[in-house]
Design a protein that fits this description.
It is a single chain. With 435 residues, the chain is an alpha/beta fold. It has 3 domains: 5-64 and 104-174 and 270-324, FAD/NAD(P)-binding domain, CATH 3.50.50.60; 77-101 and 178-268, D-Amino Acid Oxidase, Chain A, domain 2, CATH 3.30.9; 341-434, no CATH class. 39% of the residues lie in helices and 23% in strands. Strands 1, 2, 7, 8, 9, 10, 16 and 17 form an 8-stranded mixed beta sheet that branches. The protein has a 7-stranded mixed beta sheet with strand order 5-4-12-13-14-11-15, sandwiched between helices. Strands 3-6 form a two-stranded antiparallel ribbon. Helix 1 (17-28) packs parallel to helix 7, helix 2 (53-61) crosses helix 7 (297-310) and helix 11 runs antiparallel to helix 12 (406-426). The longest helix has 27 residues, at 314-340. The chain is globular and about 80 Å long. The structure holds flavin-adenine dinucleotide. The site of flavin-adenine dinucleotide has 36 residues, from helix 1, strand 2, strand 8 and helix 7.
Amino acid sequence: MEGLNLTSDVAIVGAGPVGCLTALAFARRGARILLLDANSSVGERLSGEWLHPAALQILESHGVKLPSAESYATGEGYVVFPDDGTEPITLKYPAGLKGRSCEHKSLVLALREAVESHPSIHFISSAQATQIEGNKLHFVDALQGSMKTVTAGQIVGADGRASWVRKQLGHPNGSTKVSLMAGILLEDAELPFEGFGHVVLGGPGPALVFRISPRFLRVCLDVPSRDYNSKAASAYLWNSYSSVLPPSLLPAFQEALQNRPILWAPNQFRSRAFYGQEGTALVGDAVGHFHPLTAVGLTLGFMDGECLARSQSFVEYRKERSALTHVPELLADSLYRVFTRQDKGTVALRSSIYRTWRENPSECERTMRILAGLETDVRQFRKAFLKMMRSAVPGILHHTLVPNQWRSMIASVKGFVEWFKWLRTSTEIPNDSRA
Ligand SMILES: Cc1cc2nc3c(=O)[nH]c(=O)nc-3n(C[C@H](O)[C@H](O)[C@H](O)COP(=O)(O)OP(=O)(O)OC[C@H]3O[C@@H](n4cnc5c(N)ncnc54)[C@H](O)[C@@H]3O)c2cc1C
């Protein structure tokens, strides 16, 4: 592969988690891969750290060696701390399934090690892609100080949310900003439910807390964009979240806000509607991305890579992924809004979701099957959502019996009708035109 003009079966732009996994998936099928990344090193970054069981299985099937998780509990599921002060709700993965969490940097380093030691993958770091012309990809190899061109049977854009490949194909970024995420590390703190991801509601946005190593917990705090003020960030985070976080975390939370850097990342949404075109496919965040509340970005991205490598054609890839990723997208979009909106219809719906999860183990299981990517049938999602909506109705009607509560009832009904409309339009069975 040496020289200024290279040839390869597949050229992949971006060696983040999804680009590396896609390279391994193609290599397993006997392809020769050129993998490029603009950055020479893997830095600290607030990004994906929770892996659903499917993602973990894919990594294991490629022999990717993550740091050992034997000395800490992880990957059991989630515990939701409701905003109405009621008891936490446990949502466990279905029997036999386990996810895990680990520091993002360790995940990328483990994947980079796997691609670098693979004989069919040629990895060039510090390689900035500059132009695509048909099946030719031009790039600058910064370490060698030269322009190079690879002629490839297939070009893959695995270059993240701001995808350059996507733009080359004439598709604008199209992301909308949802909120910001502040990330901090808590040292030597104990989780109330070790092994589980904690979703704590009641602050300005959801707080996510989970263990990423024997010593450290990751805390991700969702901050509405209007509240962001870099100079007063520590005080803001303490004032906004210390009253809702489990008390056992507070000493370490205070210590971290005083002495540790806060990492920030924008939370964005772009629907998974464009997968590229024949000869130039997109995978991972380059296709679409959602709020990290449901932690599905890595899982969906790894599945993209696997699917692309085994597909006979681009159309087959696009069709399969469009069909299978619609439900995770709906769940991520709806859950974030259900957990953050304060209109009366949404509050009623939220209470109903808490109640359903508490009282109905099969609904808990359905939620976790959707979250884990095992349930991708849009009809199942609609059924589950309608069930939650139906069980919110008595709470809303209750207002009609209370004198002077008519206004409140009308506001609830209005909010409810909005959700109903959303459900109707968003759960129309997607067809090929989505891609
Ligand atoms: C705060 C936060 C928390 C999250 N938590 C989770 C979680 O717990 N679980 C989960 O599954 N997901 C989570 N996500 C989402 C997850 O991080 C992403 O889905 C995942 O990182 C996407 O991987 P990727 O490889 O597609 O893109 P990226 O990780 O963005 O990698 C893209 C790579 O492409 C390279 N690149 C870009 N442009 C070029 C170019 N022109 N030439 C060469 N190289 C280029 C970059 O250097 C980078 O290495 C989170 C996201 C955020 C923001």
